[in-house]
Amino acid sequence: GAVVSQHPSWVICKSGTSVKIECRSLDFQATTMFWYRQFPKQSLMLMATSNEGSKATYEQGVEKDKFLINHASLTLSTLTVTSAHPEDSSFYICSTEGSGRAGNTDTQYFGPGTRLTVL
Amino acid sequence: RKEVEQDPGPFNVPEGATVAFNCTYSNSASQSFFWYRQDCRKEPKLLMSVYSSGNEDGRFTAQLNRASQYISLLIRDSKLSDSATYLCVVNRGAGSYQLTFGKGTKLSVIP
Fold it and tell me: Which residues in A lie closer than 8 A to residue B98 (C-beta atoms)?
């Protein structure tokens, strides 16, 4: 069964609105979660590393004030795309490092992704 | 140089064929290597980790050459269900869970 969930699975919004995406680890505690985005025909690009109880670490070129990350508990990280614009339309995927999961062998678990379309 | 480079394909092969994908990576500090598969509009799913000694999982064989910074994936007896994009993935360094993905190689297995 699913190990990591994301909500919503897709969202369509108007330009200028903010969108919140949730990422949950379902049967284990995840100290660290990662946020990626993938544009069509491109590779997944790491946006930020989210650590429970501390500030996220953003990759070069990713605006921290535009992509707000909150990792307030060991099972939930949220990504908020503030004032979304059409160029933010992408597939956003979270993942967790699974060291807190029984039987983990250095595996990383990916959520099913959220497809954001900004009109 | 791209961090992880793959031939984008597409590779169109008949059922039962053997197909090989290659990948090169630029970060010599990378310690963990993987092949993921990604179906259209879905999240990537781990196919297999890649070890220096080479490893096999059923019809899939992965090889790693650290000196050349080269990773390969061989699929034998291709099935229709193998049609997907195959992503070469490396980590950023010892103990790092941060991953760098290649753009992927698209495989279509034709009946």
Answer: 34, 46, 49
